[in-house]
Amino acid sequence: MSCGCEEKPWRNYYRYYDTPDGCDVGKKILVTSRYGTIAGMIFATYDVLMFSHAVGLVPVLKRYATHVVPLALMGATFTVVSNAALQARERDDSYNYFLGTSRSYGERLHYILRIVRSENF
Fold this sequence. Notes:
Strand content: under 5%
Largest sheet: none
Number of strands: 0
Number of helices: 3
Low-confidence stretches: none
Mean pLDDT: 86
Distance between the termini: 48 Å
Number of domains: 1
Structural class: mainly alpha
């Protein structure tokens, strides 16, 4: 399957749709993980300051990891599954995104249940 990665726009950063699906998967994983990391940092800061009131370095880092790691992995999982489906099926259609999104929802559900069940929330 040809990627068509030869022509790239000139920018200092990479966006998800700069290249077709199945091409530059590593860069696409970094892009989607970056958005999850930013959202996780925002949620974790809000959690530490407003809800858990964690004191000390280790409890604060634990609260940050509780939010940042699952949200970053959601984006990475979506990218890996949708690109793997493209490679396996050899068709570029919306079903690949459906597979990536449905696998990502499993992690999202685990994240939500973990937050609800935590004793500090």
